[in-house]
Amino acid sequence: MVITKEDVLKVIDKIVEVIRENKEYLTELDSAIGDADHGINMDRGFEAVKQKLATIPENSDIGTILKTVGMTLVSTVGGASGPLYGTAFMRAGQAVQGKTELTEEDVVKIFEAALQGIKDRGKAQAGDKTMIDSIEPAYKALKESLENNIALPEALKRAVNAAKEGMEYTKNISARKGRASYLGERSIGHIDPGATSSYLMIKALADVINLL
Amino acid sequence: MKKLINNPESVVKEMIEGLLAAHPNYLRKLENINVIVRKDAPVEGKVGLVSGGGSGHEPAHAGYVGYGMLDAACPGEVFTSPTPDQMYEAIKAVNSGKGVLLIIKNYTGDVMNFEMAREMAQAEGIEVDQVIVNDDVAVENSTWTQGRRGIAGTVFVHKIAGAKAQEGASLKEVKRVAEKVIANVRSMGMALTPCTVPAAGKPSFTLQEDEMEIGIGIHGEPGTHREKIKHVDEIVEHLMDKIINDLPYKSGDEVAVMINGMGGTPLMELYIANRKVAEILKEKDIKVYKTYVGEFMTSLEMSGFSITLLKLDEELKALLDAKADTPAFKQL
Known about the structure:
The complex is a heterodimer of chains A (212) and B (332).
Chain A: E1 3-4, H1 5-21, H2 23-33, H3 38-53, H4 62-76, H5 81-95, E2 101-102, H6 104-122, H7 132-147, H8 152-169, H9 193-211
Antiparallel strand pairs in A: 1-2
Helix pairs in contact in A: 1-3, 1-9, 2-3, 2-9, 3-4, 4-5, 5-6, 6-7, 7-8, 7-9, 8-9
Chain B: H1 11-22, E1 27-29, E2 36-38, E3 48-55, E4 72-78, H2 84-94, E5 100-105, H3 108-123, E6 128-133, H4 154-166, H5 171-184, E7 185-191, E8 211-214, E9 225-228, H6 232-246, E10 254-261, H7 267-283, E11 287-294, E12 304-311, H8 314-321, E13 324-325, E14 330-331
Parallel strand pairs in B: 3-4, 3-5, 5-6, 10-11
Antiparallel strand pairs in B: 1-2, 2-4, 7-8, 7-12, 8-9, 10-12, 13-14
């Protein structure tokens, strides 16, 4: 399967839309264990992404598009999510630098680079109650499915399911990173807002690819 | 939500416009970006001091930009760390060639954004170093967490590092005194009511009429625990007990005291709290060198306060007494 530049732009549009739809939900999750601004900040950032992408040259490759998304998020989201998601998209862009089409392997590379970027920037690991708890299982499920010759749309569905499980798992653990960590045990019982926004983005990607 | 605003989306922009209109002799804003700098920045022969954080903590940090304190402040959205491009522009604007010190409150977002800005500035050959303030004793330190939060004690770092920089000291020296303050400053706060981020429209947590939150942070984030409200003397005893035993502050020590209102606390109540703080310090034979009572690091309209103690030596006393002239902090 080949994913074109237009498909990538469709995925980003879908992410913008999904974040907008879940703005209040993400903020509500954040008010339980953080500072009640995750949805607001993410929505501001992706709205800026939408506007920025409308201005980039027609012939930009996928790497450039993803890097532009990353840099826009870094300069508009703020908080912890800005540098984390910003680094994730910038690293993803570097991983597919110069490409105008993506193969299955490229999608894996994008996940791998994004996950590593978030780990490097946030110095967190799986089980810390962060976005990594959604992204890492999704990455593993995607990689394993593709290695077993499962087609990309189905592999992405499995990645979404893994991300969902990871997101739901964050409800049972206490936070070790970010502002939620100050609550210690009191953060148990609440889903992590970052893990949720990561899940929503992975789901947006899978939904678009499944419709192709 | 009842607030004196026009539009939740434009509170930071409009606040900055009002701030600049009020203090044209102290401050200017960089073009096209939310960075407030000393009117005369960059100051020749002086290390530049840059701080920043989410908005909603006024007068922190822009109110401390001026002679003897900060050279630049980067206000983020309400309770949201500013972005690396703001900090990067701030660093460039205040660098006179002697280097720049970043004063960062210990929050995941702030630390990461400043880290990205530092990398960007260092890539351009600007000498940049940083200190991270973590004075809040409410949150126990642990290798598994981000560590302690930075709260009102940060203002003492601004004052003392600012005085050292104003003397013309090197980046290394300015950093040394900033770290000395961080090593000797401890704070803890509490709240009677939550606060509402304008864009969120509702309080970030709820407290019953007879409840209070102990160990509250400055972002409306819940504290360490919640209990029935008590008399202020008992509340002060609890906070002071945590603070004093943490460093610990001992008999014979000399300290600066800061009683900081969170935004919705009458000055009368802050003085009542200080009465007990002074009494406890006297009992423990800890000498009060100087006391600051007022709003230094607020949390929107939250009702509550924090206590900060800074243990002083001769060097810190001299730097605390040095001249400062900023919109929100004046030392003659």
